[in-house]
Amino acid sequence: NPDMDCFGAAVGIKVMARGLQKKARIIMEEPYTNILPMYNKIMAVHEYQKDVISLKKAYNLIDENDMLIIVDVHAKNYVLDTEIIKKFKKVVIIDHHRRVPDQITGAVLSYIEPYASSASELVTELMQYVFDKPEMSILEAEALFAGISVDTKSFNFKTGVRTFEAASFLKRQGARTVEIREMFASD
User: Fold this and answer.
1) What is the pTM of this model?
2) What angle (nearest 5°) sits at the alpha carbon of residue 148, between those of residues 100 and 126?
3) Is the separation of the CB atoms in 138 and 42 below 8 Å?
4) Band of the pLDDT at 131, cuts 50, 70, 90?
């Protein structure tokens, strides 16, 4: 059940892969209501229409050189499908939750930082280390910003200097906070 932080972080990973001239796909099943406003906007972009794929399609496309990057989770019982993890020789985990005993093992890199507000924050930080000026659309910046915003309850919970630095970076990339707030507003 991916939330906005998970989806935003996945979009951010796709942005980084594209900047490194690598092909990236987001594996997820049907969209869940808590991400639908952003999901629908992202899916209106041609690149994402072909690169957001189902588990079944992913199983058919896996190559021995592919890497699986898991975001916003490191517990086995919370991933979409534990069997697909076994199909990859290289697995990377990026998460902000406290370590759990039931964690995924065998990853080539586990970046688990419980002091971060969100996986979207971590991915945004990584992006700044990799690129001086990443090529990202306003919508992609908004997906990451929305992930941070949702996990921090609009910057009111579990925020730190790093959180605001990541948000500031995304604002410089064009993220529109009013649009994000309206997208996830409920009566």
Assistant:
1) 0.93
2) 75
3) no
4) very high
What pLDDT does 179 receive?
A: 85
- The count of other CB atoms within 10 Å of the CB of residue 29 is 13
CA distances from 113 to 71, 72, 109, 118, 119 (A): 12, 11, 12, 9, 9
Burial group, residue 103, by CB count within 10 angstroms (0-12, 13-18, 19+) = middle
One-letter identity of residue 179: E
Residue 107, helix vs strand vs coil:
coil
Which secondary-structure segment (H or E) carries 59? helix 55-61
What percent of the chain shows pLDDT beyond 90?
A: 75
67-78 burial, b at 16+ Cβ within 10 Å, e below that, comes to: ebbbbbbbeeeb
- Supply 61's token pair: 């496309």
67 three-class SS: strand
DSSP β-bridge partners for residue 112: 95
pLDDT of residue 186: 64
Please give the sequence-ordered ranges of beta strands (E in DSSP) within 8-162, or none if there are none: 26-27, 52-53, 67-71, 90-95, 109-112
Q: Are 118 and 152 in contact (CB under 8 A)?
A: yes
User: Residue 31: helix, strand or coil by DSSP?
Assistant: coil
